[in-house]
Structures are given as C-alpha cells and as structure tokens.
Design brief:
mainly beta; seven-stranded antiparallel sheet; two-stranded antiparallel sheet; PPIase_dom_sf
C-alpha cells in the first residue's frame, strides 16, 4: 500500500485550474470530488474509524502543505466527528473503502479567514495555509472500521 500512497506524490501537482475539475461532482456544501479509483468496500458512516492516506495541496499554487506519507503512516480518524476540517470530514463520508479521489475543498470548509499558522514558526507570523485558501486533497481510503 505504501507504493500506492507514494504515487500520489508523483502525480501532476494539482492547482485551481486542474484538468480533472470539470468532471468533478459538486456537493450541496460546495465540496467537489473526482473518483480516480472507485472503492468496493464499506462506505464510512459517522463515527466509523477510517484509515486514509492523504496529500494536501494549496489550490492556488499546488504547494504540498501536508502528507501522511511523510509522517510514516496513514491517518486514522473517526469520520463525521469534527476531528478534521469540515471538507475533509465530508469527503471521508463520501468515499468507500478502496477509493482514491481528488477533492477540492473551498476555504469555508477548510481554515477560512483565519488560515492556519505554521506550527514550526516560532514567530507565529508565517502561515502554513494562508487565510481564505481553497485546498486540494488526494485521498486513498485504506480501511473503514
């Protein structure tokens, strides 16, 4: 499975003008997603534990701001419980086990006007995610429990 997750990092870096965007499904909240590989397993319900590899990009320039691959393992999170940003939570509930998807998350479903400061910046002035940034995630749902 690690090789699949590493492929995420070798794809063309997505941006707001992504060629997959016109084929995306848009939800009522404004989240957009395109299945790159449909899953055949269970679809998560709120409260289910989901094991997912992810790579997060700034939509404006394709800069990678976070990835589970470099953290040494997939994220394990309870879906639909507000542990992660709203858009990520919503995406988890849409994707069955085995799915790979590209997800576009509008700023309102991400960090909004506050953005997210870089935790490694001792001055607390540098943003990891600037205010009002749309985000793009590559997700691979490995397991639903």
């Amino acid at each position: 499975m690690a090789s699949q997750a590493q492929r995420v990092l070798t794809t063309v870096v997505p941006t707001a003008s992504d060629s997959l965007l016109p084929r995306a499904t848009t939800t009522a909240s404004g989240l957009r997603y395109t299945l790159r590989q449909p899953g055949t397993g269970a679809r998560p319900q709120a409260g289910d534990r989901v094991v997912v590899h992810y790579t997060g990009f700034l939509a404006a320039d394709g800069h990678i701001f976070d990835t589970s691959v470099q953290q040494g393992g997939p994220l394990k999170v309870k879906a639909g419980r507000g542990v992660v940003i709203k858009g990520f939570d919503e995406a988890l509930l849409l994707l069955p086990e085995g799915s790979r998807a590209r997800v576009w998350i509008p700023a309102a479903l991400a960090y909004g006007a506050k953005g997210r400061l870089d935790p490694d910046d001792e001055t607390e002035k540098r943003y990891l995610i600037p205010p009002n940034s749309d985000l793009i995630f590559e997700l691979e749902v490995l397991k639903v429990k």
